[in-house]
Amino acid sequence: xxxxxxxxxxxxxxxxxxxxxxxxxxxxxxxxxxxxxxxxxxxxxxxxxxxxxxxxxxxxxxxxxxxxxxxxxxxxxxxxxxxxxxxxxxxxxxxxxxxxxxxxxxxxxxxxxxxxxxxxxxxxxxxxxxxxxxxxxxxxxxxxxxxxxxxxxxxxxxxxxxxxxxxxxxxxxx
Length: 174
Fold this sequence. Notes:
about 170 residues, two-stranded parallel sheet, two-stranded parallel ribbon, 6 strands, elongated
């Protein structure tokens, strides 16, 4: 809020700060923006700079955020390891869902496709966030994938709450 921006500006003034660098993701960039707006409104010459650093890689006007490369590599390696585990023990773990964190951009989930540079058969299914998630469709995708290529070794999916989760309605008990 504007009041929070003003409060941040007052804190900087008490510290006799002339420059404010704030490294982080969406919330940090938003806070920096509020403080910069308060400074402009007050005619305060403090310089405010948001330094993008988020593993989500979802800051507007930013090509690649520091932190994303590390998480992209980790996700690709984890997806590949999941594939190898599933192939080694298909009866124990016929289908694995790799739940990944992130916001709604989908870059982290998309990074799981990098595992295909080592093994073109993994992952079979990738679900990016911010799209409706239909449980029936998901189960049908798994069945179709299993019939075509065996159980899917990894199903990367963002753990952000999807806009809508559609669950089949069960008929009332007789």
